[in-house]
Fold this protein.
Amino acid sequence: MESYAADLTEGQQVLAGQFLGFVGDSGYGDEGTVGQFAVHLHIGIYVPDADGEDTAVNPFPYLEEVRDSVVHADYAGLY
C-alpha cells in the first residue's frame, strides 16, 4: 500500500467496499523502493504457527471464494 486510510487501525474489522487506502508500486526491492514495479496490491494472510510465529498462507483460494462478491467503487474524489 502506498498509504492507508486515515481512520484505519491495525486489527480493525473491515467491510466489503470500505476504503482502505491507495495501492502502490513498491516491490521486492530495498525498503522504500518505488517506481520499479506495476501498481498492485499485495494480499497477505498470516496465521500463528504452534510456536506463535506468523506463517504465510496462500491467499488465492480465499480470493477465489469471494471473486463473485467484488464491490466496485470509485474513490477518485478522495485525493
